Amino acid sequence: MSLELLARRILTLTGAGPCLLLGDDGAPLVAPLLALGVDARCHAASAALAEAGHARMPGRFTSGPLAALRTWPAGLGTLVLLGAPAEMAGAGAGRALRALRRLVRGALLLHAPGEAPPDGWEATALAAGFRHHPRQVQTGLLREAGLSGGALLLLEPLPERLPRGPATPHPSPARQDMLRGSSPAQVARRVRYDWARRWIKAGDHVADAGGGPGDGAWFLARMSEAARLTAILPGAAMAAYARAAFAHPRIVVVEEDPVAALESLPENSVDCLLCFEALERGAEPDRLLAACHRVLTPAGRLLLALPAAPPPPAPSGTRSRSSRAAPPGWAALRERLAARFLLDVTAAQTGWDHPGGARLRPFPPEAEPPAAQWLLASAIKPYALGPQPAYPPRLVIEGEPVRINPTDFAGMLDNPWLHRGLLDGGMRPADPALLRRTCLALIEHGPEKARAAALTVLGYRLLEDGTVEQAALAAHLRQIGQWVAAWEGRARQPQVARWLVSLAFLAALLAQKTGALALAAQWFNRCIATDPAPFGPMLFTKTVEACHRLGWIHYGQGEPEAARRAWQEGLDQARRALGLRRDAGRHPLAPRLNFVFDEYAAICDMACRCAIALNHLDNPAIGLERAPSFARPRERQMELLARIARLSGELSAAQAALRSQEKALEKTRAKKNPARRRQKDGAGSAAGTGKDGR
């Protein structure tokens, strides 16, 4: 087990607040956590272990039973309990967990490989006043880091105003709370919301009309950067529970029927809408889908989940209390969605009680789903052609028209909604056929900047396709040439410079794929000749890389001086890019600065490749090797660090296994040879005496 890797995974799951490690197994983690900046301490059972740790890290170790923790100040961020102390055996586990709960303000990470209490660790912890942490779905990261076997729970304390444990009869909302139990339906809902968060980006307005007592909105508030979450809850009991259990500054609770609530929201105001198991609850599914379409922004996502089979019939002689209608068949649902949405991703979901285990199995939207308990669908509101609503002013960066923020890509399109639906890699359609149809429609009928965007996206898809024919690449190159020729005289306009550079770079890559190196060199030169500065420093990533790739083409053709000029130009372009003023986003919903600095890092890495190539070119004793200049130094460093961590873990495991084998072998030898054992015991006694025999 790599302690450094395990410490990083714990930090990822629980955050960087103060951390108290409980048990002897947690002592080795204090130093790795301190190295990561975590205020880590350890309360060990062994006084000798605590004394040894205190000698190396004063003030970081205490020892004694868990009852001694009463002296610790309340409000520690994270408790990490590795291994179950003896006092937590049997019925003592519940008492110990109730005592620990008052110390936790963040999370409790519990790994108990030993014997479980009578009700199991999970049930005992939930009864002691905890609930599942939203990141419980990610605890597999800790298994990968070496915490194998036993119970592995990531918990957080229930709010004080909520009743504790199953001993108290829960009202209906608490029984439906997916964080307070582990029935197949509750586990499936946690996996479902984790699946949903991939389509939520910073600044989004998310609406959850998927039932539940507000736990879904809480999950997404903790696991995404959504700016606002509207939890639509039918009934006063659900709304009251949500306000008590899931109070959060970004969550707004709406107590209303889902259809009526959606019809009351402003049009084009929701970026991601969840309707989990809602379609079969109401009597008017078409009205619900119409309301969903109205409130979603163009390119916004509708996420659906519904049972794959009708609810079981009520026992004979009883009246069914289920409010669910029989879910529509898959073909009928697909037809209903196609009338208003673009069906993109579909998956079949099973619970952990299923013979195949709990998992999501994607299947093509046009196919029949495999056997499952739930069906999931992700559909997109059309965004490409036809009249679109005005782009909301809240997303426009203020300032002079020419001084456009280098990351405000949406504001530089004829149809700004295309940014989310076409250019944002995480948000655009995941279905290759749907993405291709969208690009082809824009190339044929879209406005000029939309055509440029579609040409770029479709070109990179062709570049990645290993089966594409050369005729298709040549046709795409001709289209790029026509577009570039029409706009080449307007390169001082930021949005034109953006597409001239991007498309020329793409055309060079496509030409390389066809083997036309001379044509690729021409396109790289056209890319370098267009000034990226009107758009901003971010565009220099393309021109600096174009210099690097052009240098290799010249060198491979026996033109070292041309290669030298290209690589030197790459260094000059990088210096110029780093010297430009970066216009910081002044709007709170502007894209995060980490994207900007990642682009700067890419420029520096590519300049480093050019510098390495120049250094080798000027040093005949070394010779010019291609490999060192192709791998980014940062990438190589991360690969080496990952390899070192992996090898360190393997070495630690091998050493532990070797020590265990040596002990077992020594015991076996001692049993077979009692004289050897007596001789060893005598040698040990002699070693404990002084030189004078005392």
Provide a short characterization of the protein structure.
Helix content is 47%, strand content 13%. The chain has 694 residues and is of the alpha/beta class.
Keywords:
694 residues; disordered C terminus; alpha/beta; seven-stranded mixed beta sheet; eight-stranded mixed beta sheet; globular; 13% strand; 15 strands
Specify the biggest β-sheet.
Answer: 8 strands, mixed
What class would the helix/strand composition place it in? alpha/beta
Question: Rounded to an integer, what's the Rg over CA atoms?
Answer: 31 Å
Task: Detail the poorly predicted runs.
Answer: 166-170, 318-322, 394-404, 584-591, 627-631, 683-694
How many individual helices? 25
The order of strands across the largest sheet is 10-9-8-11-12-15-13-14
The chain-level mean pLDDT equals: 82
| Portion of residues within helices | 40-55%
Through-space gap between termini: 44 Å
Query: How large a portion of the residues is in β-strands, by DSSP E?
Result: 5-15%
Total E-strand runs? 15
Q: Estimate the global geometry from the Cα principal axes.
A: globular
Describe this structure in words.
The chain is built from 25 helices and 15 strands. Helix content is 47%, strand content 13%. With 694 residues, it is α/β, with parallel strands linked by helices. Strand 4 (76-82), helix 4 (92-101) and strand 5 (104-112) form a beta-alpha-beta unit. The strands form two sheets. Strands 10-9-8-11-12-15-13-14 form an eight-stranded mixed beta sheet. Strands 3-2-1-4-5-7-6 form a seven-stranded mixed beta sheet, sandwiched between helices.
